[in-house]
Amino acid sequence: MRRVYFVVEGQTEAEFVREVIAPYFQENGIYDVRAILIETSKGHKGGFVNYSHMKKLVVRLLKEEPGVLVTTLVDYFRIPNDLPGYAECMRLVSVSEKIDCLQQGLKSNISEAVEWPFFIPYVQQYEFEALLFSSNKGFEYCFEKNVSEKTAQILIQYPNPEEINDSPVTAPSKRLLSIIPDYQKVVDGNTIALEIGIEPILEKCPRFRRWIETLIAEAQK
């Protein structure tokens, strides 16, 4: 079994890895799962403002701990434009194609720095909050009926939550803020995710599911 390190952009994603993803991996015999925040400056962690910060961390982990499997959990929404091949990827038509292109660019770029890297990059379409729309159970648990009724309408509109779009007004997080003005990403986001559980997310979000399945299969080798 390989150790699995998730390089994440924020505390919300870190808690999601620890509280939701890690227990699922443990059920599959993978016990060493860690979330590591990108360091944006000396002593400051969290945020994905440029590629160099991520690359430095990923390369260090791969070189210092041979055999570790490193992945990323970062949002496509407002992703930095200095990622390898960014301009070329943005010329593609669909968001799915753009993300696939960005992920391939990341993998190729890291491969130039580390020989035989166990690196599986992942960019969330469109952002972490999309996963929360996999089930209305979390909203019903955390908020009043008037809130859960509004979130239920979004679930009906988007059977695949990953397709909720990324405009500055209608991105998943912006939709939540319009419904819940005092929405707190770290606390509320992970409480909702814990109440949902990973199974509905895997069922409703095919890109997320393929990533998780790929990580588990690679870590079990």
What report would you give on this structure?
With 221 residues, this protein is of the alpha/beta class. The chain has two domains: 4-125 and 202-219, Rossmann fold (3-Layer(aba) Sandwich), CATH 3.40.50; 129-185, no CATH class. It has helices at residues 11-27, 51-64, 86-90, 95-113, 137-142, 145-157, 172-179, 185-196, 198-204, 206-219; strands at 4-8, 33-37, 39-41, 44-45, 69-75, 119-120, 123-124. Strand 3 and strand 4 (44-45) form a beta hairpin. Helix 1 (11-27) packs parallel to helix 8 (185-196). It is globular. 38% of the residues are buried.
Q: Give the overall silhouette.
A: globular
- Distance N to C terminus: 6 Å
Largest sheet: 5 strands, parallel
Low-confidence stretches: none
Tell me the number of strands: 7
Based on helices, strands and strand pairing, what is the structural class? alpha/beta
Report the CATH C-level class of the largest domain: Alpha Beta
**Percent helix among the residues?**
40-55%
As a whole number of angstroms, the C-alpha radius of gyration is: 17 Å
Strand content bin: 5-15%
CATH architectural grouping of the largest domain: 3-Layer(aba) Sandwich
The domain count comes to 2
